[in-house]
Each structure stands twice: as structure tokens, then as C-alpha cells.
Amino acid sequence: MSSLKLKTDRLILRNFEPSDSDMEALYLLLKDKEVNTFLPWFPVKDMEETKAFYEKHFKNKEYSFAVCFKEDNIPIGYIKAAMDDSHDFGYALRKEFWHRGITAEAGLALVQQLKKDGIPYITATHDKNNPRSGNVMRRIGMKYCYSYEEQWQPKDFLVTFRMYQLNFDGQQDRVYQKYWNLYQTHYIENNL
Fold it and tell me: Reading across the β-sheet that carries 89-93, which strands appear in turn?
């Protein structure tokens, strides 16, 4: 597992550890219904589900970081980029820390590292009913590409997602087409 740490003016981005304190911090984030409204899973119910989530989503994942303030190094959120063909960029933050520019600050640090490491691009999607997530994507330099409708699982309701992308390798016209091709209802919104 990578022990890469990234630092910004206010933050440390580091690997989650299977320690009691990190698992408790992750539990506080993952159990919150409001935080998880626009995330692709249901809130966790207990510490056992939190540990299973850690094993699946964070353990031994190269670009999956706990977001911590420098002064206490306690996770208040996460930021990650998948290493499959989507290079999906994702994040969550405890709601008491919303609207302070923390996710964008962490996102810019991770973007710089991904670019430095030769990752060709990142993509990210957000529910059109969660425009603040799109604001974060734009603040880190991502561009809107298209929208599509998906019967979202496991929550099983119809969502219109907006797909954003940021290319690092000079291929500015490249657009990740998987969601466009996978979902029958897709279009470009001209007002974004």
C-alpha cells in the first residue's frame, strides 16, 4: 500500500488506517444520511459495516485518502481516484465542514499528484440535484461533458448524472464515453 501523504495549507491527505480512531471518524462520515444522500451506497449502520467499507474502498487503494486538518490529523472526509478506465474522482466530507473550500483544496492537491504520476485523466459524476458537487468539480478544473439517466443501484431510483472530465495528457478533446454508450437517455445540457 502506498504511504503517500499530500499536504495543503490546511490539510493532510493520508491513507486511512484500520485504527480505532480512523474507523470511528469514518463511521461518523458514513452513517450520516445527509452526507450519503448523493453517494452510491446506503449509510452504514454500525462499526462492522464501516470496517467492511474500509476494506473494500480504502485498504490498499493507491489514491484513496483520508482528508484531515493538519492540527489534529483526524479524518473529516475522504477523496479518491479509481484506477479503472474511468479514473473516477470521488469525495465526501462531514457536513459540519461543508462550504469551507476543503473538498476543492484537497481535490487540487490530488489532481496535481495524479498529473505528476502520469494518470491521463479523471472523470466524475454528480446528481443534477446536487449542483454543489459540480461546483467542486469546476473549481479543480474539470469540464462538463454530458448528462445521462441511470436507474441508480443499489438505491434503485432514476438519477440524471452530469459527467465531468479533466485531461492531463494534452488530449483536450478526449471524452470518456462509457456512460454515454451504456445509458440510452443521454444528452448535452447547453446551459452548463
Answer: 6-7, 11-14, 64-69, 75-81, 89-93
Q: What is the pTM of this model?
A: 0.93
Task: Give the C-alpha separation, 36 to 42, whole Å.
Answer: 7
Identify which of 111, 182, 175, 121 has the alpha carbon closest to the alpha carbon of residue 146.
Answer: 175
Q: Is the dihedral of CA 76, 33, 63, 97 positive or negative?
A: negative
| C-beta neighbour count of 90 within 10 angstroms | 18
Q: Which three cell numbers stand for residue 132?
A: 454543489
- State pLDDT tens for residues 94-118: 999 999 999 999 999 999 999 999 9
**What is the separation of C-alpha 172 from the centre of its chain, rounded to a whole number of angstroms?**
22
Cα 74 to Cα 16, 99, 188: the distances in Å are: 10, 19, 40
- Tell me the per-residue pLDDT of 27-82, one tens digit each, with 9 for 90 and over: 999 999 999 999 989 999 999 999 999 999 999 999 999 999 999 999 999 999 99
Record the cell numbers describing residue 77, joined without a space: 472526509
Number of neighbouring beta carbons within 10 Å of residue 157: 8
